[in-house]
């Protein structure tokens, strides 16, 4: 800070003070400041006549005063250094700004993040490129053409405690599928935890130490996973019936009590009657009165408008429409009329 202040003092000493205005503002108490939103509102009253004459000058001066007050207050806030730069710590905003959508909620921590936070484990960022000993060049840590890719090996050493006839390539492939499925299940669990819902049961989920209920549930699911839904599945000698068989549907007899049947039908009619839309009498009355007023106004307008003259002139019939003849009828009748 001392070095920064010395640089500022040297710059101010070499500049001409007449070119710059003072940082003091006369009517600073009338300027409302909101440092959290970097907002300054100048509430000084302005004469209307004077504002019309010098609009641009008054706007520039009031804006300059508000900005100067905002910077004066920002310099009084606590300053902290972040990555070699000085940053001002802004307070909470005072002015509520409307927005179209609500503020997004913070995402809940995953199970691993909660465990790492409780144990104090820090997430160390690893470099994407690593050295590959086989090709003697840098390659990506994961993904396509990654470094130290064990899937490209043409031979795998069989461990001492493993079956010599076991296919190690298939074992590795199955282990990878299990890891992918476990990660997907954990991802779904995190989503369910964030939405405060339970993951649907799918038999025995992969757990380190399954409980007795989980094992019995998995056994019940395995019994019913046959084509006969467990009807012909062999049972153990001392196997007890499972508690996870589900609920059975109950069918009532076709000939029963008439009184209970009557009550059920009446309840069904009442529930259907409640679903019917209710008539709003006030709304229907207002609509009928509005229609009557509209018809009355139309009749009144039709009375005021004059009736159109009827005849050939009103219909647009003249010499052209009658073929150039002014009289009607044939030649014989016209001659008799002239006589």
From TrEMBL:
Keywords: Nucleus, Ribosome biogenesis. Residues 303-313 have a biased composition (Basic residues). Pfam families: RRS1. Its main location: nucleus. InterPro entries: Ribosom_reg. Belongs to the RRS1 family. This is Ribosome biogenesis regulatory protein. It comes from Aplysia californica.
